[in-house]
Design a protein that fits this description.
Mean pLDDT: 91
Radius of gyration: 18 Å
Number of domains: 1
Strand content: under 5%
Distance between the termini: 29 Å
Structural class: mainly alpha
Number of helices: 4
Largest sheet: none
Number of strands: 0
Helix content: over 70%
Order of helices and strands: HHHH
Shape: elongated
Low-confidence stretches: none
Length: 140
């Protein structure tokens, strides 16, 4: 549970920091163009902080962390989110400078999304046994 709380807190900080970065850079440039950097703030808060808080609540009620698939979820999800959001920051800064993203940026972002997909599947697999146990206990 402590790891989930630390992850949620870290993503909250990264979400706030990325919002500040976007606002600071656009303020200095005296322009607010919508780009990848502008959405990093909400990605860190929603996919990072809120997701970890939801999983924390699931852990508190269903005790998920003992399973192998939970470990796969936690590591893969965090790696995928860091890669995805990191590429968003990178791409957004390039866009603010007048450039555009290329195939390399899209490919790395794709890897991040694939890792997030694998992690979500691992979480769903991890949930199956605890939910079945909970339902069986309710019927008894």
């Amino acid at each position: 549970m402590k790891q989930l709380w630390i992850a949620a807190s870290t993503y909250a900080g990264l979400g706030l920091a990325s919002g500040l970065l976007y606002r600071t850079l656009t303020h200095k440039m005296d322009v607010i163009p919508p780009n990848q950097l502008s959405t990093t703030h909400t990605h860190f808060l929603a996919l990072g902080m809120l997701m970890m808080l939801i999983v924390l609540a699931l852990e508190a009620t269903l005790s998920l962390s003992g399973s192998r698939s939970f470990k796969v979820f936690f590591l893969t999800y965090n790696a995928g989110l860091v890669i995805t959001a990191g590429v968003m920051v990178w791409h957004g800064i390039i866009e603010l400078g007048g450039g555009s993203g290329g195939a390399m940026i899209a490919g790395i972002a794709g890897i991040g999304h694939i890792l997030l997909t694998v992690a979500i599947v691992a979480l769903l697999v991890c949930l199956k046994a605890p939910i079945q146990r909970h339902l069986a206990a309710k019927e008894a």
